[in-house]
Amino acid sequence: MHSGKYILFYNPLCHNHLMNKKSIKNITIVGGTHGNEFTGAYLAKYWLNNAYKVQRPSFDTQVVFANQKAFKEVRRYIDRDLNRSCSHDLLNSSVSSHEQGVAQELNTLIGPKGERDKNSDFVIDMHTTTANMGVSLVISNESELTWIVATYLSEQFPELKIYRWQGDEEGAFVDSLGSDGFAIEVGAVPQGVLRADIYKQTEEVVYKILDFLELYNSSIVDIDRKVTIYDHVELVDFPRNSSGELAAMVHPDRQDKDFSEINRGDAMFLTFDGETLSYDLDESLYGVFINEAAYYEKGFAMCLARKIEHTF
Amino acid sequence: MHSGKYILFYNPLCHNHLMNKKSIKNITIVGGTHGNEFTGAYLAKYWLNNAYKVQRPSFDTQVVFANQKAFKEVRRYIDRDLNRSCSHDLLNSSVSSHEQGVAQELNTLIGPKGERDKNSDFVIDMHTTTANMGVSLVISNESELTWIVATYLSEQFPELKIYRWQGDEEGAFVDSLGSDGFAIEVGAVPQGVLRADIYKQTEEVVYKILDFLELYNSSIVDIDRKVTIYDHVELVDFPRNSSGELAAMVHPDRQDKDFSEINRGDAMFLTFDGETLSYDLDESLYGVFINEAAYYEKGFAMCLARKIEHTF
Q1: For residue B255, which residues of chain A lie inside 8 Å, CB to CB?
Q2: What is the mean pLDDT of residues A25-32?
Q3: Against a cut of 0.90, is the pTM above it?
Q4: Where are the extended beta strands (E) located within chain B?
Q5: What separation in angstroms does the CA of B15 have from each of B11, B25, B224?
Q6: Which residue, among B37, B193, B206, B273, would best test binding to A if mutated, counting the most A CBs under 10 Å from its CB?
Q7: Is the ipTM of this complex over 0.90?
Q8: Distance between CA A236 and CA A286 in Å, rounded?
């Protein structure tokens, strides 16, 4: 039993609930969804050669190195973002891009998406970010097991942050192929760079998830049904000129301040002429994915989130 | 006069020497040599729209946004590395790649390379790095003016480091098109990211160079003929397996430690199994370009340099 100091005990208040709990038979760990996010790609390669590291007695673990072609070219994607390619539409229409093909293969391995009986009970999709987000989870579903695992991780890693993404694209994420799961985002690390510290942090979180799922299968797990999360509110684009080009940079006071509160009047952007542009909303929110390289093309400089106590 | 606290005075010992000094008539600032190094690209765009910022009374300043096609695709290059494409061979043969064409255009604007009369007297090529190199100069020529400017900058910015590159490719750098000049490398910043702090540091160094060249044209400049530099010794590749794939990462103790001394027994790499590989040379050297994203494909994890007092 690898779960360290975590204590399990029987709580009669949770009894009915936990008697119906799901049994985990198969899980999938995905790396290299984005070809220039090396941490997940190299972890996937390592575990494909060292399967015993991710196997546990009560379930099977499948490791997938997703976008190998993009990895070889050190690009996020070849034709389109794989992590926006797992929508029902793209999974069920003829293949017209490299990533659509990969998404359909993943759906065979993990899904079928939306159906009750799937090949995989839990999906861990490993990502990195150029934003200073530390170890964080990006959750875009409401499944109970997802929240149980996330809450457990936030107890085990007090610095871990949970960001609930509720944008238009959530239904097309790789982890949406399964009924339960999430993306792990660890940063800051440049695209195309393998940083040992980021690699080790990601590896540790995955082992912790596996050990917990093993425990979950065999024990009554009592866990708090409340967890602090950063709940997506809106996207903030860079100031741009009439041609759509950047007219300002993320302000030095905002850079690297992911999961910090932003109050009215705080610096947000710095124009090339040196003018500071400030936050002008009445509600204080929190910046997430601040200055992530991959989001320049998507048209946002950061996300804003509300810090809440989420109960499930 | 913008040179701040720098004091000029007449030194009779230097008189003969300085009477023969070169007069600067034209200089060139290049940004976007690599399309995913945003600092130089955005500075070039800014100065193309705000030319007065880089003009000085005694010389003309030309600003070049070099690889715009690669910038649009957020890639280092389209076909081949532009900063390895300015060799005599490539400048004087028919164009077979996008970057060879750009190199020949740059040679028209700046050179002709190797000829005495050039269109530009000094070249500043702006780069960024994912390595934690702070503000540094990469010098690959022996021209006196280059070293005078570099020495002046190291006096003005005590944290600035000078790395003298003496590899096989030095003759193909963009700054080799001029008789004098160097590359500025500022980091750490991910590829495809604009960081305001890195942008402002680069901008400040360029303005300092321009102000100094203005001063140089009009005054007798007395400057120390000795400067501390990091002199290239060798390249160190990642440990690789028989297929050429990475078998280890830069060790956490080495990551971000650019321009720090490495002694026998110090940690260099960490294998995916957790084994530490150590430095085994007798001579203590200094790491430079540690874990630079662009050099994975070139086959090195860092450069090793000797710290010396360089006289010129």
Answers
A1: 195-197
A2: 97
A3: yes
A4: 26-31, 60-65, 122-128, 134-139, 161-164, 181-187, 226-236, 248-250, 261-262, 267-271, 276-278, 285-288, 302-311
A5: 6, 22, 14
A6: B193
A7: yes
A8: 12
